Fold this sequence. Notes:
This protein has helices spanning about 100-110, 125-130, 145-155, 170-180, 205-220, 240-255, and strands spanning about 1-5, 10-15, 20-25, 25-30, 50-55, 60-65, 75, 80-85, 115-120, 135-140, 165-170, 185-190, 195, 205, 225-230, 255-265, 275-285. Helices cover about 25% and strands about 35% of the residues. By secondary structure, the protein is an alpha/beta fold. The chain starts with a strand and ends with a strand. Strands 1-16-17-15-12-9-10-11 form an 8-stranded mixed sheet. Strands 2-3-4-5-6 form a 5-stranded mixed sheet, with no helix packed on it. A two-stranded antiparallel sheet has the order 7-8. The protein folds into 2 domains: about 1-70, Immunoglobulin-like, CATH 2.60.40; about 90-285, Vaccinia Virus protein VP39 (Rossmann fold, 3-Layer(aba) Sandwich), CATH 3.40.50.
Amino acid sequence: MWTADNWQDYELLDASDGERLERWGEYILIRPDPQIIWKGMKAHPLWKNAHAVYNRSTSGGGHWKINKLPDEWQISYKKLKFIIHPTGFKHTGLFPEQAVNWDWMSGLINGKKGKILNLFAYTGGATVAATAAGANVCHVDAAKGMVNQAKANMQLNGLSDAPVRYIIDDCRKFTEREIKRGNRYDAIIMDPPSYGRGPTGEVWKIEEQIHELIQLTAELLSDKPLFYLLNSYTTGLSPSATGYILNTVIKRKYGGVVTSDEIGLRVTQTGEVLPCGASSRWSRA
Length: 285
């Protein structure tokens, strides 16, 4: 497992009974997590002193049962800074386990001025990391609010004038248009959702459509691409399965190496690692 062990401002304090106990800077949050299936192990004393507790509703969605948080605040990862903004859907605007991928791709970019396409780019954690490492990024997400927060994260890092294109669009439709325009990229980052609907009712199911989308995005790669990163938070879609697709689509054409694994966060209370998703990586080296 690839574990994000280099955080100072984030800490997964404890995990039990379907919930995480987390420290985001100076604030303590309790949020649900379906991966936490073990029970009766809430040993950390801060379970009783959280600033905010999110409860899921039996009818879907949920709400912050306790909320003593500001609207937003900042945390840092190494030299990178991010805005934390808890929403009504339990999210905070950042996935701290992705730090293992920020480190990996930053090492590959290492000052190279390549073009990177970040699809389903959310609030721009990967965009910030890649731009700070020297890349030119095209940031694509269908949600205007997420793109606006990505711009705010870039501004926070002093990167407002960096060569970043922000696109509010359906990622598949954007990819198809870029192919027709003949545009090419030296790396692709993709973090597609498990399920979703497009603006005109199109249904997205990752298990049914991810192979075709990877084939499409592969047409956007330059002659000598640097890397391809695919993230998934879909339970049941194993890293071996997504790695298989990268092997047969990307590696078959460009050579290189594919590696796949779960990504996770270490639980301070127990020393164990909580699985938080999966990543498949292709690189030329």
